[in-house]
Design goal:
Blueprint lengths: L2 E4 L3 H13 L7 E4 L3 H10 L4 E2 L3 H6 L3 E4 L6 H8 L8 E4 L6 H7 L3 E6 L10 E6 L5 H12 L3 E4 L5 H30 L3 H20 L5 H8 L5 H12 L3 H30 L2
This protein binds NADPH dihydro-nicotinamide-adenine-dinucleotide phosphate and (2S)-3,4-dihydro-2H-pyrrole-2-carboxylic acid.
NADPH dihydro-nicotinamide-adenine-dinucleotide phosphate (NDP) binds next to helix 1 and helix 4.
Length: about 280
């Protein structure tokens, strides 16, 4: 099994490193290409045996499964470069939400899935969102999800809910880190605790909270209730958070969905034009 990666930016390189560290792939099983080739060369220096492709076509010609790890606006160019070489027996995995399965299936003859990763996969944790195309047989889906189980908890989602699922799973780490940063900044400003100590305490707290919510038998509601001693201190803080954060996440979700819609329309236009001009 040879795995090809087109795009070794933030997420492409995270996936490569996670697959190698988890033992899912040896470096020798990986071939990767990127517009700026130096990024792949650096990966090959870190993981000897990983093959540096000189073109996206080379990635496709050498791989059984190909991960498309470029941004939505870059899809058209990549698909134009590779489409003549993609085979029906190959797997193409797109990691971006605003490119729809139906567009990929109309442009490429291969088996297609959309798997949205998360930065949390870097530490072999968090979810990957799995949306499979029509050509994926039950055994193909099982095989692909087993592959992603090396680095994550694969969760099947409907394409209609890709955006909100991705907000929670993939944007979520940044949203949570923003919340934590505000907590730390306020701790430093109000009390004079050092940023390093506040960051250490907040980070350990986040790790423990994650464990409680995944394997510890708590959900967000029961966890708040358990920590809030009646008449105690936590309840005072929660009262402020409830007041101040009311409606904030609705606005966040509206903002991400507006941007998604914009990307979706742009990508749809590009990929549909491509389809028409190729007929
Ligand atoms: N970052 C995240 O946490 C997550 C990202 N995603 C999705 O992953 C996708 C990529 O995001 P991310 O990795 O953060 O973005 P980056 O910009 O870091 O990476 C994109 C990479 O694609 C390369 N590239 C662009 N055009 C081509 C081309 N024609 N041929 C080959 N390589 C090309 C770029 O090369 P160059 O070095 O020249 O710029 C760059 O390295 C996005 O669609 C995003 O939605 C999904 C889930 C989480
Ligand atoms: O910010 C982005 O567009 C991507 C999608 C999910 C996480 N990062």
């Amino acid at each position: 099994m040879k795995a090809g990666f087109i795009g070794t930016g933030s997420m492409g390189s995270i996936l490569i490193e996670a697959f190698i560290h988890s033992g899912a792939f040896n470096p020798e099983q990986i071939i990767a290409g990127n517009r700026t080739i130096r990024k792949v060369e650096l990966l090959a220096e870190t993981y000897p045996g990983l093959l540096v492709a000189q073109s996206n076509r080379e990635v496709v010609l050498e791989s059984d499964i190909i991960f498309l790890c470029v941004k939505p606006s870059e899809f058209k160019k990549v698909i134009d470069e590779i489409k003549e070489d993609v085979l029906p027996s190959q797997f193409i995995v797109s990691i971006t939400s605003p490119v729809l399965i139906k567009h990929l299936e109309s442009l490429l003859p291969s088996k297609i899935s959309k798997i949205i990763p998360s930065i949390t996969n870097y530490v072999l944790s968090g979810a990957t969102l799995c949306i499979h195309g029509n050509r994926m047989q039950p055994e193909d889906k099982e095989w692909l999800e087993n592959l992603f189980a090396h680095i994550s908890s694969p969760i099947r989602v409907s394409e209609n809910y890709t955006r909100i699922s991705s907000d929670l799973s993939s944007c979520g780490p940044a949203f949570l880190a923003n919340f934590i940063q505000s907590f730390i900044d306020a701790a430093v400003e109000v009390t004079g605790i050092s940023p390093e100590e506040a960051t250490l305490l907040a980070s350990e707290m986040t790790l423990g909270t994650g464990k409680l919510l995944t394997t510890g038998g708590f959900n967000p509601t029961t966890l708040q209730k358990r920590v809030s001693v009646p008449g105690g201190i936590t309840a005072e803080g929660l009262r402020i958070l409830d007041e101040e954060l009311s409606g904030v996440f609705s606005r966040v979700i509206h903002a991400t969905h507006d941007k998604y819609q914009e990307d979706l329309e742009k990508t749809e236009q590009q990929l549909t034009i491509k389809q028409q001009s190729s007929q």
